[in-house]
Amino acid sequence: MQEFDHIQSLWQSHSVEVKISSDEMLAQAKKEVSSISNRSILNIAGMVTSFVAVGSLCLFINFQSWTTYAGIMIVLLAIAALTIILIQGHRLISRNDFTTHPNEFLVSLKQYQLSRFSLYNKMYWIYAVALTLGVGLYLIEVVTYMELWAQILIVLFSFLWMIFCSTLVRKAVIKKDRERIALLIEKFERLGSQFKTQS
């Protein structure tokens, strides 16, 4: 047992310092910023596409119940609000050029991190409740034309899908997003300290 403790203490005392040049770190950071920015644009494009698809229901289908139109309007408002928040987040990440203003970009990146935290913890639940209410109102008219087993199946599937997205998917996305942004912030802080020591 003493040999194991001795080997462990030797292993822990032996640390290898990995040095990476500021150019390599800047190239990695540029790639990650580009990835976050592209993902942000894809999210916005997906939300705009969803808005158009849901909005087109009112144009091409003549519904009889006011609840269906109310449900569609609630869903459209929820999508529009989330799209505006996503656009604001994208502006934070793309507002400053990190190669010329690394400190300003770092501040923007920290603000982006806070906005994402707020999005996942506060706005997500408002969005989920609005979608649930909107889809519920929409389904009142739609499911009345179906048989009982199909009605139960649609309601059950919708409920299970919301639970799945609210728990497993949401947690995985939050974890991945948090790690990616934290790593990027750490890289920019290290870049800033390297530039200070070089000057």
Automatic annotation (TrEMBL):
<feature type="transmembrane region" description="Helical">
    <location>
        <begin position="149"/>
        <end position="169"/>
    </location>
</feature>
<feature type="transmembrane region" description="Helical">
    <location>
        <begin position="69"/>
        <end position="87"/>
    </location>
</feature>
<keyword id="KW-1133">Transmembrane helix</keyword>
<keyword id="KW-0472">Membrane</keyword>
<feature type="transmembrane region" description="Helical">
    <location>
        <begin position="124"/>
        <end position="143"/>
    </location>
</feature>
<keyword id="KW-0812">Transmembrane</keyword>
<protein>
    <submittedName>
        <fullName>Uncharacterized protein</fullName>
    </submittedName>
</protein>
<feature type="transmembrane region" description="Helical">
    <location>
        <begin position="40"/>
        <end position="63"/>
    </location>
</feature>
